[in-house]
Amino acid sequence: MIRARVKLCLQVSIYVLLLFSAISVITWGGTVSLTLSVAPGEVIRGETLTCTAVIVNSGASSMDLTYQNSLPTGLDQWNAQYRLNGGGWIVYPATGLIPLGTIHSGESVSVDIQASVEYSAPGTLTDTARVTDGATQLASTTITTNVLPSIDAGADKMVGLGGMITFSDASAGDGGDCFLFMGR
Q: Which of 121, 98, 103 is nearest to 47 (CA)?
């Protein structure tokens, strides 16, 4: 009689364990993908760069997801904005964390981020984005964008010793028409 009860308890324990394992696989076994693109492909300092992320839940269950993108050095994070699925623009959070809410199985969400390229930006911008469920990173990707060099299109002027030059188009703030005096 005691053997029968032990055997029954052991069988029930195994069934309960298998049940929780199956629920765990269904709940946490989802597959999330993340693609990242930028426009324009090459950007000029001072212009606006748009970064688009598409997150797809191809798993068997719904998931509460968060998109994380700490913008790279060279993008003006303080004046950046984002939108979800083509909706209205929202001020970009300083943390770089954007709650996506519940994404059902087979659904996707797009995140557009617009930011100005700073004049002090490096020659390339490397952006890494992540998708989490609040605790675990589920997807990550990186994209690199070239920043075109800034060019001063002003004409160079050379004047011979004792010569004279007249500046007709210069103003105090345009940064052009500089000259260097080399003499005694």
A: 121
